[in-house]
Amino acid sequence: METDLPLTGLRILVVDDNDDSCCYITAVLELEGASVKAVPSAALALEILPHFNPDALICDIAMPGEDGYTFIRKVRLLSANEGGQVPAVALTAYADSEDRVHALEAGFQRHIAKPVEPSELVEIIANLVTFSKC
């Protein structure tokens, strides 16, 4: 196993109802050494979050049932042991400045517009996890 990959050893939870997006994000992150769990809904993500214990979370905003804003607010109400302090990225087609502000106010640390370049996504995740461990 390569140990010089930027995401080696990291566990990342991806929440996106779009299968193509999940597959793309998962492939990009796994190629860089991450262990990825992708789920199609906020409800399922909340259920597995405490058990998967991710180092980072990537979440779409526009999802049926419960959007990413509501989801991250619920995550932030959890204890640290339950995953409430996991670094989180909103990866979304909602890309204007108001959407960015809304995402950060809801509890995400970063807001990234879709589509994202693989190298940019990897760099953002690596930096976010590194910064959160300081």
Automatic annotation (TrEMBL):
GO biological process, one term: phosphorelay signal transduction system
SMART domains attached to this UniProt entry: REC
A Pfam match: Response_reg
4-aspartylphosphate sites (modified residues): D60
Presence of the UniProt keyword Lyase in the record: no
Keywords: Phosphoprotein
Domain Response regulatory residues, every copy: 11-129
Entries under InterPro entries matching the protein: Bact_response_regulator, CheY-like_superfamily, Sig_transdc_resp-reg_receiver
PANTHER family: RESPONSE REGULATORY DOMAIN-CONTAINING PROTEIN, STRESS RESPONSE REGULATOR PROTEIN 1
Protein name: Response regulator
Biological source species: Anabaena sphaerica FACHB-251
